[in-house]
Amino acid sequence: MDTQNLSYKFKTSSVIVKLIVINLAIFLLVNLISFFMQIAPESLVAWFVLPDAFGELIVQPWSFISYAFIHFGFWHLLFNMLWLYWFGNFVLNLFDGKRFLTVYLLGAIFGGLLYVLSYNLFPVFENSRSYLIGASGAVTAIMVFIATYTPNAQMRIFTWNIKLWHIAVFLVLLDLIRLPTSGNAGGMLAHLGGAIFGYVYGSQLLKGNDIGKWFENFMDWFANLFKTRKQKPFKKVHRTTTRKSSSRSSTTDKTATQKKVDAILDKIGKSGYDSLSKEEKDFLFKAGKE
């Protein structure tokens, strides 16, 4: 296997492909380690799932993002990645990868926030303990964002062309209907949190307000922390004062010599070589040798 070629393909692929590869790699890694080491997946990634207790969140704040990259079930992963690919390409047709990643990660964070707040504020969850995993909240944010920004864009499903806003409304309503009875209230809440963020971001962007710009700047700052800073080598400074002075002196001497030579040649032209004094003849002889 050509690892160099695979590495190049990964680096040059779209942000959607990179996210799918990362999610798939984490899924395989967790499940393989769990199988061979006979460790429950929940125990293996306990520090990366999103807990519902504030006390646990304080010591693992990164879980607001890391939970969105963890899947235990194959079908859970498959459908999340399919939705990500289908709706994500609509986003990349209009925006760059940085905007896409902003919607995705902030969608995960807001989905996690609604989940945590709901489990700590609403009496119905008072005696419930759970944790959150999966990219559903982030993917829902992508879906609702693009459905809000370009509601009349169409997706072909089998033989029908369906507008994006119709699909988004249907899926959000389905989550609301299933919330009390699905047995996965936490997941449904994460979907709704991502949907709310996607709608607000998309509608504000239509008005010219980029509410995700601060996060893009934060990502740039964070990425720069890991970049190798190439220090420019110190330039050696050579002092050339003396050389310049000697150069100027040499030029001056040559000019004076040339003038004297010209004067002697003029004298020869007028009166002949025999009219020159011994000093003039010696000078002309030496000048001819230099």
UniProtKB/TrEMBL annotation:
Domain DUF6576, residue spans: 253-284
Residues of the Peptidase S54 rhomboid domain: 60-206
Subcellular location: Membrane
Any Pfam family: Rhomboid
Transmembrane keyword on record: yes
Recorded GO CC terms: membrane
Highest taxon of source: Bacteria
Annotated keywords: Hydrolase, Membrane, Protease, Transmembrane, Transmembrane helix
Transmembrane segments: 20-40, 64-88, 100-119, 131-150, 162-179, 185-202
Chain segments carrying region Disordered: 234-258
Xref: InterPro entries: DUF6576 (IPR046483), Peptidase_S54_rhomboid_dom (IPR022764), Rhomboid-like_sf (IPR035952)
GO biological process entries: proteolysis
Primary location recorded for the protein, binned into one broad class: membrane
Membrane topology: Multi-pass membrane protein
Keyword Transferase applies: no
A single MF term (Gene Ontology): serine-type endopeptidase activity
Compositionally biased region (Basic residues): 234-246
PANTHER family tied to this protein: PEPTIDASE S54 RHOMBOID DOMAIN-CONTAINING PROTEIN, RHOMBOID-RELATED PROTEIN
Identification of the protein by name: Membrane associated rhomboid family serine protease
The organism's taxonomic lineage, starting at the top: Bacteria, Pseudomonadati, Bacteroidota, Flavobacteriia, Flavobacteriales
